[in-house]
Amino acid sequence: MASKRPHEDANDTPSAAKRTRKGFSIGPANLPDGTHLRKVQKIKKDLIHKAKLKRSYAKLKERQPVLKTTAYTDTPPDEPASLELHPARQAMLDAPEEPPPEATTSKSGDQRRPRSTKPKPIPFQKEAREAQKRREEAQARHEAHEEASRQRQQKLEGRERFRKAMAKARTGGRNGQRKLGRESQVLLERVKRVVGE
Fold first, then answer.
1. I need a labelling partner for 93 at 20 to 30 A (CA). Which of 49, 54, 79, 128 fits?
2. H helices of 10-124, where?
3. Using alpha carbons only, what angle is made at residue 58 by residues 53 and 59, rounded to the nearest 5 degrees?
């Protein structure tokens, strides 16, 4: 089925006049309420404000035609510059010099002195102290462990020396008898160590 032919005065229909302009959009359409949406709204508001200013400036410009004058002209100025000083400046120069008031000197003195304020707060100071304390405790444990292992090693070496000395003393001499002099020295050292502890 063919579509109907439009009327000749179709452009003058009220539907064309009713059409409203959408305007313009900035940013995505689905922003959540909050910082981003407010920022987008602010940008749009600023753009609209700038456009209105430009329009009003253009209207003012149309009403008042601007006279085109150049900053540099070839003709000499009408009145030559005078060498006389302005009366207010002349009065200031003629006046005797006065010392500056006390209020201004105290302000400049305050600016030079460092302000006595609280020390600047250090972020995470409490955590830093706790971490330092943990490091010191770990260092102390490590040193204690090393000291214990060193003493253990010394005791093992002492036992090994004692065992070797006793083994050497127990070996028979030329005629197969034990060497009591060597054995007595080893036993004497052992007694001294036990008594010393």
1. 79
2. 14-18, 35-63, 87-94, 102-112
3. 100
